[in-house]
Design goal:
This protein has 301 residues and is α/β, with parallel strands linked by helices. The chain has a domain of 208 residues: Rossmann fold (3-Layer(aba) Sandwich). It contains 12 helices and 9 strands. Strand 8 and strand 9 form a beta hairpin. The radius of gyration is 20 Å and the shape is globular.
Length: 301
């Protein structure tokens, strides 16, 4: 059984969805697939409707790293796509520094960028060539892109030699560093990191995490989705748990553990125990249920 909790917002913020002092406001957002409209007509009603995001609300302060923890299929990536203007919500609203991604996406897009767990590149080209291409697409000059790209890659622990090798020769971790560098070329005010360290080797994972902490110190606001409890607790000022598309708990890592601890020592309560407390299952159980439901939806199509 899910248990909700009320958590104080950061100082200076409130729950007003039109509060321009917030970096990000998500207000009662709902996204459903397979139920109505063109999607249902194309499928002849065969696809089982389901809510990927179910009445989700939260507020992120400027310069904050806000974590969203959930199993694969919990709605994290759908939520990221809505914020980044790639999907329209069925109801509810989003504000990015007071701007509406639905009504005015062109004013929002320059403020944000996104890193996914499975980025795409021109793999025969080198990291530097890829970054020069995307820099030009972003409207940057060649000299500016080259300088900025090398600066970012070095900060991420990639040397200049690797920066000029074909992408197809690079490890998964090195490729993900290039994805992170690409996203930061435009100096976004809000960075959407969707499972950025999934599948990385330990060293690459530490390099990316260190870089994220460094750019946050420079004032960048970060929304981090992950199913890595340790990563979320290491990086995030506040964490929200998403299960079945619903936000079931939110707070600082310490506050969440204190809420669950009861008479136990707080240090004896890890984030996995917190997740189980608010969702009634472990993250692994949640992922297994999602895999079963995904197969059922596929079979129903």
């Amino acid at each position: 059984m899910s248990t909700s909790m009320t958590v104080r917002q950061p100082a200076g913020l409130n729950n007003d969805p039109y509060d321009a002092s917030a970096a990000l406001v998500v207000d009662h957002v709902v996204k459903e697939f397979g139920a109505t409209g063109l999607d249902r007509w194309l499928r002849r009603g065969r696809r089982t409707p389901y809510r990927a995001v179910d009445d989700v609300s939260f507020v992120v302060a400027p310069g904050e790293i806000y974590g969203v923890i959930g199993a694969n299929g919990s709605g994290k990536s759908t939520l990221i796509r809505i914020i980044s203007t790639l999907l329209l919500p069925d109801s509810g609203s989003v504000r990015v520094f007071g701007r509406d991604p639905v009504a005015d996406p062109l004013s929002v897009r320059p403020l944000i960028n996104r890193v996914s767990a499975d980025p795409s590149f021109f793999r025969p080209m080198s990291p530097m060539e890829n970054l020069l291409f995307f820099g030009r697409a972003y409207g940057l000059t060649g000299d500016e892109t080259r300088r900025r790209s090398l600066e970012l890659l070095l900060e991420l622990g990639m040397d200049e030699r690797r920066a000029n090798e074909p992408m197809l020769r690079l490890s998964r971790g090195q490729q993900q560093k290039v994805a992170v560098a690409r996203a930061f070329l435009t100096r976004p005010r809000l960075m959407l990191l969707d499972e950025p360290t999934t599948g990385l080797d330990p060293r690459s994972k530490r390099d990316v995490q260190r870089f994220v902490a460094d750019v946050r110190a420079q004032g960048v606001t970060i929304l981090l989705t992950t199913h890595d409890m340790e990563e979320a607790e290491l990086l995030c000022e506040r964490i929200a748990f998403l299960a079945g598309g619903r936000l079931v708990a939110e707070g600082t890592p310490l506050h969440l553990r204190e809420t669950v601890a009861g008479e136990r020592a707080v240090d004896d309560v890890d984030m996995e125990a917190v997740f189980m407390h608010f969702t009634g299952r472990s993250l692994e159980d949640d992922e297994e249920e999602e895999r079963t439901e995904a197969q059922q939806r596929k079979d129903a199509q």
